[in-house]
Amino acid sequence: MTECTTAADYTDIFGTDDDFGESHCFTYVQAIRPEELLRELKAPRIAPGTGTAVTGLSALREWTNELYRLGEHTFEEVQPVGVVPVGDWTLMVEYNGFMGTEPEVMLPVTRGRTAVSHMANVSPVGPFYWYVDGAVRMSYDEDPYLRSGDRPDGLLDVMRAVGFGPMEDPDEDWDEDADEVKSLTPAKFALAHHVTGVRLTRRLLETAEFTCGLVTKPVPSWLRA
Hints:
Layout lengths: L17 H5 E8 L3 H7 L12 E3 L1 H14 L7 E9 L2 E7 L7 H4 L7 E8 L6 E5 L2 E6 L15 H9 L13 H5 L1 H13 L5 H6 L1 E8 L9
Helix pairs in contact: 5-7
């Protein structure tokens, strides 16, 4: 664990890129190189345009949209991802994706290591997943009060400290106003920093050279025989 930053340190993490701020998934995986992570995810590398990487979140978003627009791949089948080393960790970023918060995808990758993933899509409340050695240590989906995993309260004090609020049982008629909901996205970055020690900044994300790959989406359970 590491010294806490708080939600206040991440309010400008996306700059003016509101699209990425509203629809993203950030996954931090310990002790693995970007190319190895793509291999473990069975995600073929793909060269965007004439290059081998894209620079910054906005370019990653544009590449994702262009990939779907060309029609060779569909949103239902694959998720474009960008991976980049950050210290001893690899950061995997998705625009309008959720692979990092899909245990079926991530549990095999996390055997023998730690990973954290958080996303926002429409509602930036959740999910947040903390994986340790092939198991979910703590997670929530759309409500941080409803946590699961091997240690559902393992980060409770930190969640309060970084900006999730008092984390007490809400009233049945509790209504989330827009500003309160939006504040949880910066809090999730601060919580991820506490677990991983990876301190993301706007500058880092604007200049990161992302190696790109395509993760095959698992078939939804309700469609399986």
